[in-house]
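Study this fold:
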Amino acid sequence: MGSSAGAVQVVLYVWLFVLAQQLVLRVEGWRIFLVIALSTALMLRIAELVVDRVLLF
């Protein structure tokens, strides 16, 4: 009976570990999305400014 309880405990630890990893990946995914979105917006703004200055001359 002791080894059965130990096996259940191991399964619970593995399950908690998997849930924690999914949460970390979800948070990291949002960070990556925000970085890509911000860098894209900045690059579009910079390109707009460069085009405006080139067309003025």
In short: The mean pLDDT is 85. Residues 9 and 27 are 27 Å apart (CA to CA). The first helix runs from residue 2 to 56. The chain has one helix and no strands.
